[in-house]
């Protein structure tokens, strides 16, 4: 809100209550969305690492302009249409090793709470029913309107009304809390004191946040796109209804670009997580890339970076294997020293507004120092174990290292056979067969990679 760093002070000591705007379940989430969910996961894991009990609420927007529009185009009921994307959303979270929130309220399960909140706003004079039978929030009645997005509605001349869920800063207007049923809504409607209709998008989050986190809570996050109008409108509704501060700290993450360009369907660089996995990248490799930039800076997603992530993570795995093989008795002082240095740097980085580059250099620094001790044969078994333990601790936050990944899952004989056929076909420049084998492998859930003088197959997450 103040555009400056502040010391975080939770409302209840040792506890953090936070609300994160979740997916609108009208399609597969794309990597831009996942950038935001990754940042929220980093925040959540960091808070837990520092000992806070976290209650995170992430809503599922399963009724709004877009879900209704696309369910009708697909000739499906809203429930059936959104159910498939709810399911894929949770599968994608698993792929990226994103910890589950405590509560995932769906908007359609909380219509009563939304109606109750709108009733308070109408009773208090902040909202009115217009000639189109929709109920609007009157921004003129709420003096703080614009304080988050730093806009002054008075500079915009006369205030109009807007029914759409999404609109731009330069068309700031009274926004819809309740939308009267119209022909575009099909059979999506509920009874209300203002007639049949459905909630606007913004009131959904205010009502669900209040239901699970109370009138004032600690942290609200989202992508920078959510700041206006969505979060501005949430503040207006909630603070007008409750007469108290809605949220103490707002955190927004910046955009994601793909290969340097804004992601868009027309530019052909619009990727769902599934499409990235389909190119052979494991969840933890994509996670590593999405973690790579500070949350308030633009993140440039490239497939080159995914390939680099694979190399970086495999070097960590090599280090873990080396550490596990150490069998020398001896003291731990040198190991303890490099671990302490890395741990301090890691914690100082994360505590400083999630400074990811500092946290990452701590993790790489320990890798460098540990390899040096290993090269000099001066690391004891006990020392090696301390270092491994530190990586397990880093992984409470990063969740990429898989320090104790078990033996690779046994590869079925027919999978090895397909991979072998691909390898020989490729060597003979029979790319048709080679590609067909690779596709078959992918369909069976495996990816094949060339390695020095051979190939290896890996299970797709
Ligand atoms: Zn929201």
Verbal overview:
There is one protein chain. Helices cover 46% and strands 14% of the residues. It is an alpha/beta fold. Strands 3, 4, 5, 6 and 7 form a five-stranded mixed beta sheet that branches. A four-stranded parallel beta sheet has the order 2-1-8-9, with helices on both faces. It has a three-stranded mixed beta sheet with strand order 11-10-12. Helix 8 crosses helix 9 (303-325) and helix 13 (413-427) runs antiparallel to helix 14. The longest helix has 23 residues, at 303-325. It is globular, with a radius of gyration of 26 Å. The structure holds zinc ion (ZN).
N- and C-termini, Cα separation:
39 Å
- Low-confidence sequence ranges: none
Computed Rg? 26 Å
Helical content, roughly?
40-55%
Q: Give the overall shape.
A: globular
Q: Give the helix/strand class.
A: alpha/beta
What do the pLDDT scores average to?
A: 93
Give the cofactors and ligands: zinc ion
Quaternary organisation: single chain
Biggest β-sheet: count, sense, barrel? 5 strands, mixed
Strand-and-helix sequence, N→C? EHEHHHEEEEEHEHEEEHHEHHHHHHEE
Strand elements, count: 14
What share of residues are in beta strands?
5-15%
Number of helix segments?
14
């Amino acid at each position: 809100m103040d555009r400056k760093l502040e010391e975080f002070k939770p409302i209840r000591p040792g506890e953090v209550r936070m609300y994160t705007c979740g997916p609108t379940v009208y399609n597969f989430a794309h990597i831009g969305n996942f950038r935001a969910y990754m940042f929220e996961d980093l925040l959540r894991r960091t808070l837990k690492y520092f000992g806070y009990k976290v209650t995170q609420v992430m809503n599922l927007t399963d009724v709004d302009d877009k879900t209704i529009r696309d369910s009708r185009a697909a000739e499906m009921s809203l429930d059936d249409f959104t159910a498939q994307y709810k399911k894929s959303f949770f599968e994608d979270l698993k792929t990226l090793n994103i910890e589950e929130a405590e509560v995932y309220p769906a908007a359609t399960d909380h219509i009563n709470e939304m109606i109750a909140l709108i009733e308070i706003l109408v009773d208090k004079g902040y909202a009115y029913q217009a000639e189109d039978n929709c109920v609007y929030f009157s921004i003129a009645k709420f003096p703080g309107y614009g304080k988050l997005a730093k806009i002054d509605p008075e500079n915009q001349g006369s205030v109009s009304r807007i029914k759409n869920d999404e609109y731009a800063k330069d068309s700031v207007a009274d926004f819809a809390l309740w939308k009267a049923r119209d022909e575009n809504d099909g059979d999506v409607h509920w009874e209300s004191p203002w007639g049949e209709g459905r909630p606007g998008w913004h009131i959904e989050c205010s009502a669900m946040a209040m239901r699970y986190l109370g009138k004032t809570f600690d942290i609200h996050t989202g992508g920078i796109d959510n700041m206006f109008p969505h979060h501005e409108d949430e503040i207006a509704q909630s603070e007008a209804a409750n007469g108290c501060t809605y949220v103490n700290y707002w955190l927004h993450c910046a955009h994601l670009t793909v290969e340097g360009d804004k992601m868009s369907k027309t530019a052909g660089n619009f990727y769902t997580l599934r499409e990235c996995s389909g190119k052979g990248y494991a969840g933890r490799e994509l996670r590593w890339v999405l973690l790579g930039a500070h949350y308030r800076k633009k993140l440039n997603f490239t497939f080159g970076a995914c390939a680099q992530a694979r190399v970086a993570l495999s070097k960590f795995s090599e280090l873990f294997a080396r550490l596990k093989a150490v069998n020398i008795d001896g003291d731990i002082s040198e190991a303890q020293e490099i671990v302490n240095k890395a741990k301090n740097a890691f914690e100082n980085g994360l505590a400083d507004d999630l400074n990811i580059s500092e946290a990452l250099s701590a993790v790489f620094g320990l890798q460098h120092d540990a390899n040096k001790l290993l090269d000099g044969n001066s690391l004891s078994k006990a020392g090696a174990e301390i270092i491994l333990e530190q990586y397990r601790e880093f992984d409470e936050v990063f969740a990429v290292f898989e320090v104790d990944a078990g033996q690779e899952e046994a590869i079925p004989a027919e999978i090895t056979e397909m991979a072998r056929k691909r390898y020989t076909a490729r060597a003979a420049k029979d790319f048709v067969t080679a590609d067909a084998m690779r596709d078959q492998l992918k369909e069976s859930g495996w990816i094949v990679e060339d390695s020095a003088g051979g190939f290896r197959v890996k299970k797709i997450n």
